[in-house]
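Field reference: sequence -> structure
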Amino acid sequence: MKKLHLFCLSLMVFIGLTAGGAEGGRGVTLTVVYDNYTLTNGTKADWGFSCLIEGMDRTVLFDTGTRGDILLGNMGILGVDPASVDAVVLSHIHRDHIGGLDAVLNRRPDISVYFGDSFPAAVDHHVSERGARPIRVRGPVEICPRVFSTGEIEGPPPEQSLILDTEQGLIIVTGCSHPGIVTILKRAKELFDRDIYFVCGGFHLIGASETAVRQIVASFKTMGVKKCGPTHCTGDRAIALFRETYGKDCIPMGVGQVIRIP
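Structure field:
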């Protein structure tokens, strides 16, 4: 886990904004609220991932990290109100992506929770008991206009990712990419015959060889992916290899990173 000093923080946020264009106008904002890395003083890094998506018809929290106290603490420091969340999307069953769910539901119970059809039956009861609406996802589903789930893709474990259909192109947000990050991108391209503008989240490459990672980076380029933000289970070495190829278009990720895309 890594914490960067204040100079790096300013640089990283500027790069993130540059990736999406200037502020203002209707666009999509992605705020990382849980990650192995942190870019904002006072927030905590921890193994896990969570990203808030704003600017669509619904405010969506993708994954909830491992610990609810850390998730809510980071949200508080970043000025994110849990009560603003309209829907939670859980990528897969692992604790580092679902552990903070109860903390969110305690603050905003009357929301929809989207999770894979592979989740145990007890999850439906647990979510309902908290006052939320459990929605099982098998195939691709629209969460709101321009926000879609890929549907569960075979793992193990099975996993869904998020697709945002924006004017710039598709934005893909992944949890851990257990089915394979390239497989996820291919699914998105099958569903929407559009260019992929930005891919971020965990790419599950922490134990992959350099050769394997370079092949994946090459696939990103072949598929026309313009920008990327690898983090969480991607691994430091793999992140460095993405940065080697993508340069400034490899957006640094961590708690506090805000990416605005018009």
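Note: Residues 27-261 form a domain with the Metallo-beta-lactamase; Chain A fold (CATH 3.60.15.10).
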